[in-house]
Each structure stands twice: as structure tokens, then as C-alpha cells.
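Hi team,

As requested, here is the filled-out complex form for the adenosine-5'-diphosphate run. I kept the field names the same as last time so the parser does not choke. Let me know if anything looks off before we queue the next batch.

— J.
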Amino acid sequence: MAEAWIRAIAVAVDEHRDQLIQLDAAIGDADHGTNLCRGFTAVLEALGDKHPRTVGEVLVTTGTTLMSSVGGASGPLYGTAFRAAGKLLTEPAVTPKQLAAALYAATAAVTQLGAATLGDKTMLDALAPACTAFEDAVLHHGDLPSAAAAAAKAAEEGAVSTIPLQARKGRASYLGVRSMGHQDPGATSTALIFEALAGVTR
Ligand code: ADP
Ligand code: MG
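And here is what came back:
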């Protein structure tokens, strides 16, 4: 499942490369789509070389590779997120509850590294609600497909919710009030990551 998820993310960031570039062009430096395509291309190579066995090893390899191949803010942030999640998942089979805990660890890692809070117009505005929605769905339904679908919906809503916000972290914050009216690129790619999870678990 984990490797299929990462491969689906690679396809999604490639398909949405131009959209991510345009969103970052509006409030950043237009490299978010390029950064993620470069990063996930390197991740696919690393997975092919290393043949990780557990879900945790797949996610840690993904994070480590993103950290070393993506120069922008999103490389270390996504890198630390995937590594934090992967470190918790050492068993070959992962339960939805364990994945929920791993998503919390990812959110905590992004918060610690980036020091953003909800509403700062960052990837956290998609990641945190997705994480909560995933856990709620696990508690109510218990199955991975419903949890992934709920997380994808929450991440997408979170990404759209960044449009009116003023950026308070990262490059977009340099624009002040001119950052308002644009969807955050990182929140948008986070929504793609959860949509990819929903796609492979459906
Ligand atoms: P850079 O900003 O270095 O060009 P990218 O364009 O790849 O890097 O990524 C930009 C995205 O990173 C933003 O849209 C935002 O979601 C996210 N981001 C930037 N700074 C932070 C932060 N401190 N905390 C959380 N996310 C952040
Ligand atoms: Mg950028």
C-alpha cells in the first residue's frame, strides 16, 4: 500500500505541476511544482534502489530523499513529515489506527520545524484537518478507505480555506496583505497527497 501511495503522489504532482507552479508564482517564487516533481522523481529512484520492506521504511526513505533533493521550504517540511510518520510504522502490516497516529506525528513534525499555526496559510492548513478527519473516521468506521476519503476531503477544504488568508510563514509572508486571495501551493500539494491516499485505498 505504502509504495502504491508514493507512486500515486508522484503521478499527481507531475499532473498538477503547472498548477502548483502557478499558485507559487502568485505568492512565492514559482518553484513548488518543480520542487515536488524533482523530489518525487528522486523518491521513485530511491525506492527502486532500496526495495524497502515495511510501510515505515517506504515512508522514511521518501522523507530522507525529499530532504536531500528539494531545496525549497517544502523539501525539509515534507521530508520531516514522511520521516516522522515512517518511524512509527515498524510492523509489516499497518492498522488504520497506527496510520492515524503516524499522521499526527507528521503534523507535529511539520509544526515543530515550520513553527506555523493553523490559519498561517501553509501546508498545515490542509495537513492538520486531514489528520483530524482521518482519526475521526477511523474511530467511527474503522476502515482505511473511509478514513482516507475523509482526510482527502478535509485536506481539499483546508487548501481552499487558505485563499482569503494572509500568509504569516514562508516566502508568501513577505507579500503581507497581497498574499490574500490566492490558494497556498503547499496546502494544495498536501491535498494532492491525501487524494492519492484515497485513490489507492478506494
Ligand atoms: P519555497 O517557499 O522555499 O520556494 P516551496 O515553494 O517548495 O518552497 O514551498 C512553499 C510552501 O511551503 C508554501 O506554500 C507553504 O505551504 C509551505 N511552507 C513554507 N513555510 C512554511 C512553514 N514555516 N511551515 C509550514 N509550511 C510552510
Ligand atoms: Mg517556492
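Two things worth flagging: The chain has one domain: 2-201. The pocket of adenosine-5'-diphosphate (ligand 1) is lined by residues 24, 28-29, 31-32, 35, 72-74, 77, 110, 114-116, 122-124, 169-171, 184-187 (CB under 6 Å).

Thanks,
J.
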